[in-house]
Write a structure and sequence with these properties.
With about 260 residues, this protein is of the alpha+beta class. The protein contains 7 helices and 5 strands, in the order H-E-H-H-E-E-E-E-H-H-H-H. The C terminus is likely disordered.
Length: about 260
């Protein structure tokens, strides 16, 4: 079933089967589920109530997305849910995870994972990264000013900066992702300038720190509300069509007698 699911998904995926007959192993798996809602979502409920001894783990190679498939025997359906992202994607998992996919057949569960779980996962990950970046930036701005940051910086500040440097390219890609309309020129110019500065930072963490503290707010605002900075296309009905002059009336020549 897991192999049939990954054949319907974009990207390269691997499947690993795991057995966890002991209660402590089952508990460890439950704790790794990225909970959706206060009850933990469908996957958490199945792991707690049915205690399946086998699960299939689906991982995408390029970005490390990690889903878990279990078979709930009593109602006879399959459940796929997300596991907590790794620290490279999200260091402080405080946001709610994506809703699980549940279905009885291979075709239905594969469709649900592709059309529901994957987009929900991307949206939940973005929410978490934005929340993490905002919390780090607020803390840094309240604690330091660009001219006050001493070299070497404190370990806590260095960790927050590294998280920003990890999230920034993903946030830029999110803003630039193709939409119904293109970005306004001021937003495009800011992203181009920010990305150029980011790529030129190299090992100079003081330049990166200054970029983060002075321009991080604008990047986060763009990532939160990208549609506010897009050019609204003019409806075709509103485009003025030049009027052609009416043809002059035909004049018949008088017949001479």
């Amino acid at each position: 079933m897991a192999n049939r699911i990954i054949r319907a998904l974009p990207g390269q995926w691997t499947v690993t089967m795991m057995t966890h007959p002991q209660p402590d192993a089952q508990q460890e798996l439950r704790e790794g589920v990225w909970a959706s809602g206060p009850s933990g979502g469908a996957l958490h409920k199945v792991l707690e109530a049915s205690r399946p001894s086998t699960s299939a783990h689906l991982r995408r190679e390029d970005d490390g997305i990690w889903f878990v498939l279990v078979h709930d025997l009593w109602p006879g359906h399959y459940v796929v849910g997300a596991m907590v992202p790794g620290p490279d994607e999200l260091d402080m998992v405080a946001s709610e995870g994506p809703a699980c996919a549940t279905a009885r057949t291979a075709e239905a569960i594969a469709t649900a994972v592709r059309d529901q779980l994957l987009p929900d996962y991307a949206a939940a990950l973005l929410r978490g990264q934005l929340a993490e970046a905002e919390e780090d930036l607020r803390w840094a701005q309240e604690s330091y000013a660009p001219g006050e940051v001493l070299d070497p910086v404190s370990p806590a500040l260095a960790e927050a900066l590294n998280r920003f440097l990890s999230h920034a390219p993903r946030l830029i890609a999110h803003v630039r992702r193709s939409q119904a309309s293109e970005l306004a020129s001021h937003a495009t110019a800011f992203l181009d300038s920010f990305e150029t500065s980011l790529n030129s930072v190299g090992q100079d963490h003081m330049i990166a720190m200054s970029l983060w503290l002075t321009e991080g707010d604008q990047l986060l605002e763009l990532a939160r509300n990208p549609d506010r900075h897009r050019v609204t296309p003019t409806p075709l009905s509103a485009v003025a069509t030049p009027r052609l002059p009416k043809p002059a009336p035909a004049v018949s020549a008088a017949r001479s007698r």
